[in-house]
């Protein structure tokens, strides 16, 4: 099974981005104990003009797969549930191939 891809859009010096990263890492550690693989990708909006234009006022942005999950703050309970749903969805779609 492929890991659930989590994308964090932010920028250096953003305290909300640091808080989001900490919440994501904490939840992902628990998910790993439960045998749910995740992959965290961090994108700096200052390095991508398009991302900067879209998200300059609403960082951090957290995506699970291709879906936007949260902006500004990450609720660990909701994030955990969403990643678990994505993992189940990915597993069931694998068997439908």
Give me some keywords for this one.
Glutaredoxin, four-stranded mixed beta sheet, 4 strands, 47% helix
Summary of the model, kept short:
This protein has 97 residues and is α+β, with helices and mostly antiparallel strands. 47% of the residues lie in helices and 24% in strands. The protein is globular, with a radius of gyration of 14 Å.
SSE layout and pairing:
Blueprint: E1 4-10, H1 15-33, E2 38-44, H2 49-55, E3 61-64, E4 67-71, H3 76-95
Parallel strand pairs: 1-2
Antiparallel strand pairs: 1-3, 3-4
What does this structure look like?
By secondary structure, the chain is of the alpha+beta class. It has one domain: Glutaredoxin. 47% of the residues lie in helices and 24% in strands. The protein is built from 3 helices and 4 strands, in the order βαβαββα. It has a 4-stranded mixed sheet with strand order 2-1-3-4. α1 crosses α3.
Sequence of strands across the biggest β-sheet: 2-1-3-4
Helix proportion range: 40-55%
Tally of separate helices: 3
The CATH topology corresponds to: Glutaredoxin
Total domain count: 1
Q: Considering the protein shown, what is the CATH homologous superfamily?
A: Glutaredoxin
Uncertain segments are none
Q: So, CATH architecture?
A: 3-Layer(aba) Sandwich
* Secondary structure: number of strands: 4
* Helix vs. strand class: alpha+beta
